[in-house]
Structure of 4-oxalocrotonate tautomerase:
Amino acid sequence: MPIITVKMAKGRTIEQKQKFVENITKEAARTLNVKEEWVTVIFDEYDRENWASNGQLHLLKFGQGFGKKGAE
């Protein structure tokens, strides 16, 4: 029973997350040779003010709307 935890910044739409879990579930089941219903995906979402890389908070580094639908 694979449990896949995805850590990411908040801001994705329900549609984006649904498409992601469909794709990751299919690929995990295929690769690990298990039934799709055995695959669990958990999202750990973080505010950008609580995530940093290279010494800079993501809120400051990328801006408020980064990662949302239509943002690049």
Remarks:
- The chain has a mean pLDDT of 90.
